[in-house]
User: Which sequence fits this backbone?
């Protein structure tokens, strides 16, 4: 019987091995961010991670008949790359809270958060190099590192576009898909592709796994954007995207509609261009989007994207037990809105 909690425990143990070496006062910052230390530097035994990307990596590896231990270094590296991006996100967005606790930026400031993020990114590469400890040939390790580094570059490109959109008069659906393809889908694609690479030498399987991961990442972001406006706090996602003026999927769909007043003398574009958005403006934008069917259209698009990802999963032909596990993980993305 598959127990994902056991795999999560394996991922966390590998992460601790990867990032707890070294030390010094700087380590307190990134270990706090990982959930391995509290703000006073004391070791904690319960981390905060769902480890979604590592679980996709290990599950694809197992589903293709591989030894999941040989995929653990890639799984750990993926989580570290993801966590590094969150430190940098908080600096860029001046985010003061992360997972219900003060962010590294909020406690130590932007300059030290940059130091912590840069150090953590280095541990990501070091984690990927640990394949030799599990008998992974050097050639596979280097091929996996190539995929991970390019995924990190694509993530940065997606973040660049996301920030660029914040000052753009218009953002099209094609623009949005290009941004999400980097910012979110790149790591999901890399997770599934590297899991396949640890299990098999078949390039067609690597590519099929990458396509599935990409589709899963796009669906994940679409649902995340839905939650960013209409989410329930119980899912741990603050519904503040309109307040922050983000060009999320519902906003992009709204911008494609003919201009109409959201507030007297203010269209959706005017509201997004404002220096700040108070509660009245945010509620007016939300009501405007709902009245024009954007909420339901966002749900429909996210559902369709999830179905597309699940169709790609069928093409990967995982072992039945692991197909069910991975398919359930994709379905769980949809269940976050319930």
Assistant:
């Amino acid at each position: 019987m598959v127990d994902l909690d056991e795999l999560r425990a394996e991922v966390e143990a590998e992460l601790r091995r990867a990032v707890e070496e070294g030390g010094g006062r700087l380590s307190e910052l990134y270990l706090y961010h990982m959930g391995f230390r509290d703000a006073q530097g004391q070791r904690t035994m319960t981390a905060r991670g769902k480890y979604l990307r590592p679980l996709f990596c290990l599950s694809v590896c197992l589903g293709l008949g591989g030894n999941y231990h040989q995929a653990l270094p890639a799984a750990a590296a993926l989580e570290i790359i993801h966590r590094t991006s969150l430190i940098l996100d908080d600096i860029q967005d001046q985010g003061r809270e992360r997972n219900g606790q003060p962010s590294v930026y909020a406690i130590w400031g932007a300059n030290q958060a940059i130091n912590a993020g840069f150090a953590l990114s280095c541990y990501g590469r070091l984690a990927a190099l640990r394949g030799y400890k599990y008998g992974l040939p050097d050639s596979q390790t280097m091929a996996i590192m190539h995929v991970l580094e390019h995924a990190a570059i694509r993530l940065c490109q997606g973040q660049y576009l996301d920030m660029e959109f914040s000052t753009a008069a218009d953002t099209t659906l094609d623009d949005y898909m290009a941004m999400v393809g980097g910012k979110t889908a790149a790591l999901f694609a890399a997770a599934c592709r590297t899991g396949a690479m640890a299990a098999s030498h078949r390039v067609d399987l690597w590519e099929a796994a990458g396509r599935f991961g990409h589709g899963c990442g796009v669906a994940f972001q679409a649902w995340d954007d839905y939650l960013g406006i209409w989410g329930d706090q119980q899912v741990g996602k603050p519904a503040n995207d309109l307040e922050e003026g983000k060009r999320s999927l519902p906003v992009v769909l709204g911008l494609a509609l003919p201009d109409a007043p959201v507030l007297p003398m203010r269209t959706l574009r005017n509201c997004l261009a404002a220096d700040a958005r108070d509660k009245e403006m945010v509620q007016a934008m939300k009501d405007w989007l709902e009245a024009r069917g954007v909420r339901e259209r966002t749900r429909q698009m996210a559902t369709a994207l999830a179905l597309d990802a699940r169709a790609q999963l069928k093409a990967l032909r995982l072992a039945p037990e692991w197909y069910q596990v991975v398919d359930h993980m994709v379905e769980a993305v949809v269940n976050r809105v319930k």
